[in-house]
Each structure stands twice: as structure tokens, then as C-alpha cells.
């Protein structure tokens, strides 16, 4: 009898996973809506506690105001930054590749000498020619157009999904126990108490985590903007570099490196008129110092406060989880590692706390 029960549970889980795979778009809408609801929950709860002439603030109105606030922030973000991205793309496409190569002639020649020393004569090729070809390909208007076409297509898909996500988010905000009630419907009655407590803990921890993540992105954006402005980079370039660095920083460990590489690349591309050794190299050095200062602040101040305190886990524990997730599922796994691990820890504490290992790993929750 037990074997049959386990078999049915296995089949139910398998069917659920297959259904989630085929309906991945809807599942993604629900996940995005849940994240937006977690971020907006503090505002919605605060509004619902308001009293208007002795009457409770309507939950539907609180949800609507919160949802409009979320979308207003996002729309403002696009209005401010999309023109900067377009302007930067146009500036990069107008760069004279021959001038770039000529300006970098001396360092390219030094690299060429090292390359020739370790490469057979029949395989040698002028690096100046290679650099010119690669830069023409990278900065060609067709490539930049393709990038913007891809972005436009992605935005089109987002707008198609906009209504669905807004609709689901509204009801998640309006009825904050909706997801909890759904979970209780599929959980055996004897586990109702544990499941309810687990859902409340997960909601609280993930809400703190995602809000903290927004704060972290804002702080990194502000730090990079201030640092590069002090260095002397033009404000339009600063805004784009800071935005990219802040958003890509969501990818643990790899993201900051990509942000620095992108920033230095834009720095080189937009300051080709400078002398390489006397002006451009010092500028890149100052930019690197600015990035490193912000990164140190993130590593020793922002991340411990946001990740360790929000999900109640040790920094080394977080590092190992992210490393494992990256090995198993790549960059996507690294991004989702902390929220997923938080959910697993809460469930383990509620249902498997009798085991010493689980009790030790979840004692801070």
C-alpha cells in the first residue's frame, strides 16, 4: 500500500513538472508576479492599515496603488535610460576604426612582437589587421542594429505579457494569502500547521531579500555614478556604465567582472583622442579604482547586510550554494540560488527539524 502511495506521489510530481515545462510562459508570469508582489507587499500593507474617516482602506485600492507605483518606477526607468542606450549605440557605431587602430599602434606592436616570438612564421598575422577587422565587425551599424532589434523584440514580448503579469500581481497584492490557500489545498491536512508556518516564513524572508536586492542595485548604481563622475567620465557614459554594472551585479561573482570589463571598454571607445600612455592608461586606472572601491563596499557592506541578514544564512554557506548552483545550472542557477535555497531551508526546518544536520543549518531562521 505504501509503495502504491509513493508511486502516485511520484506520478503527481512528474505530471506537475511536465505541465510546468509546457506552460513555462504562464509559470514565468506567476513567478514574476510573485516577486513583484513581494516587493510591493510592504507598501500595500501600509496602505491597508490606513483609516479614512474611521473606515479601513480598501484592499483593492491599496493593491491598485501599489501596482501603479511599481509600473510607474519601471516606466520612469525606461524613459530615462533607453534614450541613453540608443545614444551610446549611435556614438559607438560612428567610431572611426582606423583611428582606433592608429591610436593603439604602439601597444599593438608590443603585443605583435611577443606574438611573433612564440608563433611559427607561416601562422603569423599582423595584429593591427586583425584588430581592425574585429573592431569593424563589432562596431558595424548592422551589429548594433541587430542588438537593438533583439532588445525591441524582447520588449515586445514583455508588453504582450504585461497585462497577464499585472492582473496576477494585482490579486497577489489584494489577497495576500491567496498563494498560501492554494498550497494548503494540495498539502495533506495533517501538515497544515507546518505548511502555513513555512509559507509565512518564506514570504517574509523572500520579501526582505528582493527588497534588499533592489536597494543593492540602487547603491551600486549610485556608487559607480559618483566614482566615474569624479574620475571625469561624461555623464551620459557614466549613467549607462553604472546601469549595466548595477544590473549585471545580480549575477554573483561573475557579474562584477563583466561590469568592470564593459565600463573599461566604453571608457576606451569614448576617449580614443587621448594619448594612450600619458592620458588613456591613467584614466582606465582611475576607473578601475572607482569600480574596485564600489565592489569592496558591496562585498563587505551591502552583501552581508542584504544576503546574510535577509535570508539568515552564513556568508560561506551562501558562497557554496551559489558555486554549486552555478556548476549545475550556469548563470541562471547562480541568480536563483539564494531564493531557492531559502525556500528549501524553510521547508526543511518545518518538516525535517528532527534531524541534527537540518536543525543546525536552519537554527537562525
UniProtKB/TrEMBL annotation:
<comment type="similarity">
    <text>Belongs to the autoinducer-2 exporter (AI-2E) (TC 2.A.86) family.</text>
</comment>
<protein>
    <submittedName>
        <fullName>Pheromone autoinducer 2 transporter</fullName>
    </submittedName>
</protein>
<dbReference type="Pfam" id="PF01594">
    <property type="entry name" value="AI-2E_transport"/>
</dbReference>
<feature type="transmembrane region" description="Helical">
    <location>
        <begin position="284"/>
        <end position="306"/>
    </location>
</feature>
<keyword id="KW-1003">Cell membrane</keyword>
<feature type="transmembrane region" description="Helical">
    <location>
        <begin position="318"/>
        <end position="344"/>
    </location>
</feature>
<dbReference type="InterPro" id="IPR002549">
    <property type="entry name" value="AI-2E-like"/>
</dbReference>
<feature type="transmembrane region" description="Helical">
    <location>
        <begin position="60"/>
        <end position="86"/>
    </location>
</feature>
<feature type="transmembrane region" description="Helical">
    <location>
        <begin position="147"/>
        <end position="173"/>
    </location>
</feature>
<feature type="transmembrane region" description="Helical">
    <location>
        <begin position="239"/>
        <end position="272"/>
    </location>
</feature>
<keyword id="KW-0813">Transport</keyword>
<keyword id="KW-1133">Transmembrane helix</keyword>
<feature type="transmembrane region" description="Helical">
    <location>
        <begin position="209"/>
        <end position="233"/>
    </location>
</feature>
<feature type="transmembrane region" description="Helical">
    <location>
        <begin position="6"/>
        <end position="39"/>
    </location>
</feature>
<keyword id="KW-0812">Transmembrane</keyword>
<dbReference type="GO" id="GO:0005886">
    <property type="term" value="C:plasma membrane"/>
</dbReference>
<keyword id="KW-0472">Membrane</keyword>
Amino acid at each position: 500500500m505504501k509503495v502504491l502511495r509513493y508511486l502516485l506521489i511520484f506520478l503527481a510530481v512528474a505530471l506537475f513538472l511536465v505541465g510546468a515545462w509546457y506552460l513555462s510562459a504562464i509559470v514565468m508570469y506567476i513567478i514574476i508576479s510573485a516577486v513583484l508582489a513581494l516587493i510591493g507587499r510592504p507598501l500595500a500593507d501600509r496602505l491597508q492599515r490606513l483609516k479614512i474617516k474611521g473606515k479601513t482602506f480598501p484592499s483593492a485600492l491599496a493593491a491598485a496603488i501599489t501596482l501603479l507605483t511599481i509600473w510607474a518606477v519601471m516606466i520612469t526607468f525606461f524613459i530615462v535610460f533607453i534614450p541613453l542606450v540608443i545614444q551610446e549605440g549611435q556614438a559607438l557605431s560612428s567610431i572611426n576604426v582606423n583611428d582606433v587602430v592608429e591610436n593603439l599602434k604602439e601597444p599593438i606592436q608590443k603585443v605583435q612582437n611577443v606574438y611573433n616570438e612564440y608563433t611559427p612564421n607561416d601562422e603569423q598575422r599582423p595584429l593591427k589587421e586583425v584588430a581592425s577587422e574585429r573592431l569593424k565587425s563589432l562596431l558595424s551599424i548592422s551589429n548594433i542594429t541587430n542588438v537593438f532589434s533583439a532588445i525591441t523584440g524582447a520588449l515586445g514580448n514583455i508588453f504582450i505579457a504585461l497585462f497577464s503579469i499585472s492582473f496576477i500581481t494585482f490579486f497577489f497584492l489584494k489577497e495576500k494569502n491567496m498563494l498560501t490557500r492554494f498550497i494548503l489545498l494540495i498539502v495533506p491536512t495533517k501538515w497544515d500547521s507546518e505548511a502555513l508556518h513555512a509559507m509565512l516564513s518564506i514570504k517574509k524572508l523572500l520579501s526582505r531579500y528582493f527588497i534588499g536586492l533592489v536597494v543593492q542595485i540602487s547603491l551600486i548604481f549610485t556608487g559607480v555614478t559618483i566614482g566615474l563622475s569624479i574620475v571625469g567620465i561624461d555623464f551620459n557614459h557614466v549613467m549607462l556604465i553604472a546601469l549595466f554594472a548595477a544590473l549585471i551585479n545580480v549575477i554573483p561573482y561573475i557579474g562584477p567582472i563583466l561590469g568592470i570589463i564593459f565600463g573599461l571598454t566604453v571608457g576606451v571607445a569614448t576617449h580614443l583622442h587621448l594619448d594612450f600612455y600619458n592620458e588613456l592608461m591613467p584614466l582606465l586606472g582611475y576607473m578601475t579604482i572607482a569600480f574596485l572601491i564600489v565592489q569592496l563596499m558591496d562585498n563587505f557592506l551591502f552583501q552581508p547586510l542584504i544576503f546574510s541578514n535577509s535570508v539568515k544564512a552564513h556568508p560561506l554557506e551562501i558562497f557554496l550554494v551559489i558555486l554549486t548552483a552555478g556548476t549545475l545550472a550556469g548563470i541562471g542557477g547562480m541568480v536563483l540560488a539564494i531564493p531557492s535555497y531559502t525556500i528549501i531551508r524553510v521547508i526543511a526546518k518545518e518538516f525535517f527539524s528532527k534531524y541534527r544536520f537540518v536543525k543546525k543549518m536552519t537554527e537562525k531562521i
